[in-house]
Amino acid sequence: MSQIFHPSTNTISKVTLLGAVFFLAALLWVFGVIVRSPYVTEANVVRQQPVPFSHKHHVAGLGIECRYCHTTVETSAFAGMPSTKTCMTCHSQIWVDAPILEPVRASYRTDQSIEWTRVNDLPDFAYFNHSIHVKKGIGCETCHGPVDDMALAWRANSLNMEWCLDCHRDPARYVRPRDKVFEIGYKPAEDQRVLGERLMKEYAIDTQRAVLMNCSTCHR
Amino acid sequence: MSQVDVPQAPHDPHHHPPVIAPGHTYASVTDKISTIVLTEPVSRGWIVGFAISFLLTMMLLYAITYLLVKGTGIWGINVPVAWGFAIINFVWWIGIGHAGTLISAILLLLHQEWRTSINRFAEAMTLFAVACAGLFPLIHMGRPWLFYWLLPYPNTMQLWPQFRSPLVWDVFAVSTYATVSLLFWYVGLIPDLATLRDRSHRRSGRLIYGALALGWRGSARHWFRYQTAYLLLAALATPLVVSVHTVVSFDFAISILPGWHTTIFPPYFVAGAIYSGFAMVLTLALPLRKFYGLEDFITMRHINNMAKIMLATGLIVAYGYLMELFIGFYSGSIFESAAMRNRLFGPYAPFFWALILCNVLTPQLLWSKRIRTNVLILFFISLVVNAGMWLERFVIVITSLHRDFLPSSWAMYYPTRWDWATYIGTIGLFLALLFLFIRLLPMISIFEMRELVTPHAKSNGMQAARSLDRGDDAHE
Fold it and tell me: Closest-CA residue in chain A for B216?
């Protein structure tokens, strides 16, 4: 009986069997990369807004502080979106005829809110509270990135759970003095590890991670 | 299995009936088994049987599709009985698989040469039963498409599965079991696939069986490595016979529910698994043997042995039932004894008494050798035991769940038509896979049967010697 297979089949089958291991490993790796990519997490993706509001202009250019618009960040879970009246405190005086601001004026006239596109949005099953983070010395830019550089806002981080846990596991790497929370471009005056450990004690941050790493802290 | 290891004692003093009928030679064994796959035309019975089981498989797909669209609300489950048919069927199927592993691994290591003619399709049965079993926990999840959350992998939530939960142990136990069973089955097939490659008259057959045979030429080095690998796999599979159903029983025993929270569950589940597995092997072997004329290979000795194992494991299971009831009352816990009273006299009592009839009383017939060797009655008993083992899981899952500590949360469980469609559908899937298996692969291990010819050939005299001279088998 003649041979069914060409001698090269030996090599092909060995390469296939060995290659399958690498192929599967590569497949897993690609999956891991995709779920962490901006395509899925929407991190670093600039969002279009009904009015092209520039944080860069208002924060870096004019020096308006975060809390001027996000008024409830120290007292409630939600940082707060400014009402149209907040915009109009200035824009009833300056740029009053700018066509780009027409939706703002329309909103003021009709009493209909501007529908901003939400940039940082956690899923509803995760409980997040801004006030406690501010109170314990987590700076705005730690999560929201260089807002003073955002002509249009983007999400600076993935908001994946592993990203939350990265800090919850060891907050000392990020904690800053309370009076520096709203500062952008903050640099610690001393070694961050030493400062962080000290501030954690001072601010009574859960050093045992009993609360920080508990499921029901965020999933209530 | 190995040529070296075969006990060289053909005429043992106990006068066992032979494990292969006299008069067989290497050639006749190979012919008999391989022609079923290669040359025999597809019989009408096969077509009808396959058509029915294929239709049932389609029903299963329909039921699962509807489930994915609507969610688990189409089933009869609700609080307090959140584990309905899905878990009953899971435990039932996974238990059935155990006989295959016992036959192929433990009986191999114990040199029980009578296992040879039944191990191949018992292993196939294991694989198909595990496939049916694995389906149920998956579709029982609310969102089956997230099944991979059960596996430990570096996910974006930075979460491991809950390793303290027996449900996660289940994932590992069952996936290990499926992997080892598949490997064991496939490795066992390799020399036979080479036989089919060499005997196939069609190019497609030669190519497919040839590719699957992985270049097997039957050289001495091949056999040496093969036997090492096969024994290693057998040793790997051996603990699985005990571990898998132990872990399945932990799903119940680790909880604190009266009727579940008992230490007897692991051994009694393992015995029950082997019991139901052998019942299923008999259910399959008896018709196969008849329709394909395999009486020479699956002899009365096999059937008698399997019936004895069924009787023995059946008695262990009966002891388990007795102890469950006894400890329920002896514990002094009102919840435990209430659970047992509810089992005996509650709304689901008919299921319990049917279970006793099927699993405890009926197998007592097997004490009689006349019944153990009566194929028809034995087939009937094996069906009864299969049903009984399903009832056992029904009683365990439903009667314990439907009345727990708080009477205000008591409720009844009624399966819906979707529960039934899924359950019967998996029986269809199981049978459809088996029908394909007996047409496409040798249902009895050819090369291991040939090894049995040698010690038994001495009594066959000249015939065997002639066939040895001819060197019937090119690749051995």
Answer: A10
